[in-house]
Design goal:
The protein is mainly α. It is built from five helices and no strands.
Length: 126
């Protein structure tokens, strides 16, 4: 948008718009995200509200200064977390399902039963 405004009007209009949206982002978006995050952390853990605000602020500065490298590392950590949840929750569930349908805990057959009996739930995934 700033490039369009610079071409259509002038560099001054482009700069005014860019500074305006930067200020809106910093004073509206980031403050509300940090406030609500600190509120959630302080309500579900023994961490104080003020400590949560400081921690989230420091974390956001680290992520901002780290750039794409930090984003890559957090993506790897999140994927490992997703894999852990898959192994920890879904595979035992499939084993219990296989037991219920008489397949003696065979996980692959349990997943097959799940796909056959609840095929409507797999349209978005597959």
């Amino acid at each position: 948008m700033p490039q369009f405004l610079a071409q259509r009007y002038s560099d001054k209009v482009s700069t005014i718009m860019a500074v305006f949206w930067l200020l809106v982002y910093v004073f509206v978006n980031l403050t509300s995200i940090i406030y609500l995050g600190a509120l959630a952390i302080s309500s579900i853990s023994p961490v104080s509200f003020e400590a949560a605000i400081v921690g989230l602020s420091v974390f956001s500065i680290i992520v901002t200064l780290g750039g794409m490298k930090v984003i890559g590392y957090t993506d790897v950590i999140q994927v490992l977390g997703i894999d852990h949840r898959w192994i920890g929750y879904h595979l035992p569930g499939a084993s219990l399902l296989a037991d219920k349908f008489g397949f003696d805990g065979d996980i692959l057959k349990g997943l097959g039963v799940l796909r056959k009996e609840a095929s409507g739930h797999f349209h978005m995934i597959l």
